[in-house]
Amino acid sequence: MKKHAFLVIAHQDQRLLQQLVSLLDDDRNAVYVLIDSKSNLQGHVLSTKYASLTLMPKVPVYWGGVSTIGAELDVLRAASAGGYHYYHLISGADLPIVSQDRLHDRLEDSDLEYVDVDPGCEAFARWKVAYYHPLVETRPYRRCWPYRMIGHAFIKLQAKVGIDRTRRTRTRFSHGSAFFSITHALAQYVLERERWVRARFKYTVTCDEVFIQTLAMRSPFQSRIAGRNGLKTGNLRYIDWERKDKNSPYTFRMTDLDELKEASEHYLFARKFNRAVDHEIVDTIVERVGAGGDL
Fold first, then answer.
1. Which of 8, 93, 210, 263 could be 272's S-S partner, Cβ–Cβ 3.0 to 4.6 Å?
2. pLDDT more than 70, % of the chain
3. How many whole angstroms from its chain centre is CA 52?
4. CA distances from 181 to 141, 156, 294 (A)
């Protein structure tokens, strides 16, 4: 029996987090939860019956900052000791849209690396790394637009005076969705380069969408990357950016149930969900998928 590790990074909605954990509660799974210390989530109230549950020490996680990468590396390192078949990174706003039987059956004989790589975004990836973004690791950065404008002005100033942190590197940076499902072999490859990752992406912006793609595309596993040619289903996550809300993807509602049913034929997870926006879709997925059925 091949086991899987689910790496959950969460920052809001206690009930949704417990519902997510309940959908992963299977004796073939290990669930690792890292909670943003800036949130009011309580990890000690989470519980499982069948899956092992590990609560990581809380750390502050700032959207867009290197702390996001650090959190992912921390939870990946903790899980890697278990030698799992796959490591799935998801957020507390995600839900599986297939049963655990279907998920395990689909990946039982797979050795692919489900990492999303957009071949048209190399220049964007390099821009994220080229300049210093010191304001990202602060509370106001995501929600205070004038504060972010100061950061943008600083970037323009750096470009004007010729600062480019990538000038002396031959690294080809790649870009894609931050969420992935990778094998133990690639997880080990990433962790062996943890020091380089933390140094290279310090003071960058949203490079959780760059570091795993960059490492995977320069690794011996490149030919096994499912999303290396921009394949829409490459990382097995159904995410709607067409109806996005500013910098966040669309939040699914009950009216999207048929859409999610269709997506479940090709994807394993969907994001994102928010009980404050629509609790009915969350409860419906939990009821149907949690019972081992289909949407």
1. 93
2. 99
3. 21
4. 29, 36, 21
